[in-house]
Q: What sequence folds into this?
């Protein structure tokens, strides 16, 4: 009789433990940290690991030298374990810096590294089909086993997608994607899929775009409902106006207003207008809530298609 043991707690990020498991699997099939960074650098047109660190700090709006500091701290620990003190010797940097960088990158950049090795490495014969398949399976297995919010994209063999909390995805995002498979909703489908892709990338501007695209998907399905029910659309094509028009035409019940227009609030405040003199920072949790709100609205509204 198998022993029962408690499950792992879901990881809200790709932790060092998960990354080390993925990197070890990659190394076993002949894809070293050096190869990973080389393929990533080629795809991103970046000349050196130091340039990559600086580029990531800029794109993710990290404090200056913060990522470089994390990498150097990891290298210092390795040097100390090897009995070295003072300045890190060049040979140690060359040998261990690639892995230290990979362990320090933001989650979405780490996944992008994997995607680039599958793309560039496969194209340049760095790895064959069997190696690529094994790397994908190992990475996806580690992400799933540790409950991280990312999975291999079922529609694109060489990419990973953000799924959020698996239980929430099953209740919100998955039903919305099923509803959006209706050919009449191709526009809304494209916008909602783009919202998921932007959330996956995770940079500051991407999160803002994720909020915007989620709201656009709701607007699009409301526009389709106008067409399908032959209701004249309002001059203002925003969510609230489109919803009110359909309520007036007795297509939708008015009491679901908060459910349908929920994605409009974050979009109007954080993504629909210029940011002025102050740089706008959209929190990850707001982007995720906007996607969930849009998904719930989409699933509900799809039931009113004739």
A:
């Amino acid at each position: 009789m198998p022993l029962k043991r408690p499950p792992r707690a879901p990881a809200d990020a790709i932790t060092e433990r998960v990354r080390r498991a993925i990197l070890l699997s990659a190394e076993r099939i002949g894809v070293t940290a050096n190869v990973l960074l080389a393929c990533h650098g080629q795809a991103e047109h970046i000349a050196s690991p130091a340039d990559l660190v600086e580029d990531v700090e800029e794109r993710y709006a990290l404090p200056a030298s913060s990522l470089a500091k994390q990498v150097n701290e990891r290298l210092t620990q390795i040097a100390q374990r090897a009995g070295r003190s003072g300045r890190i010797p060049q040979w140690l940097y060359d040998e261990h810096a690639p892995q230290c960088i990979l362990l320090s990158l933001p989650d979405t950049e780490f996944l992008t590294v994997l995607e680039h090795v599958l793309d560039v490495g496969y194209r340049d014969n760095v790895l064959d089909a069997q190696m690529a398949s094994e790397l994908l399976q190992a990475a996806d297995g580690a992400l799933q086993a540790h409950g991280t919010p990312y999975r291999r994209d079922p529609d694109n063999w060489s990419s990973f997608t953000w799924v959020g909390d698996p239980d929430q995805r099953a209740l919100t995002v998955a039903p919305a994607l099923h509803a959006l498979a209706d050919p009449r909703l191709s526009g809304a489908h494209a916008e909602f899929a783009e919202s998921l892709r932007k959330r996956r990338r995770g940079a500051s501007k991407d999160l803002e775009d994720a909020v915007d695209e989620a709201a656009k998907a709701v607007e699009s399905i409301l526009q389709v409902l106008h067409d399908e029910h032959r209701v004249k659309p309002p001059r203002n094509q925003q969510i609230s106006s489109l919803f009110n028009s359909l309520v007036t035409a007795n297509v939708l019940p008015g009491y679901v207003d908060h459910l349908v227009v929920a994605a409009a609030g974050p979009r109007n405040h954080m993504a629909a207008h210029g940011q002025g003199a102050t740089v706008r920072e959209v929190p990850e949790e707001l982007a995720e809530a906007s996607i969930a709100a849009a998904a719930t609205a989409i699933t509900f509204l799809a039931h009113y298609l004739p």
Summary: The mean pLDDT is 88. The CA atoms of residues 181 and 189 lie 7 Å apart.
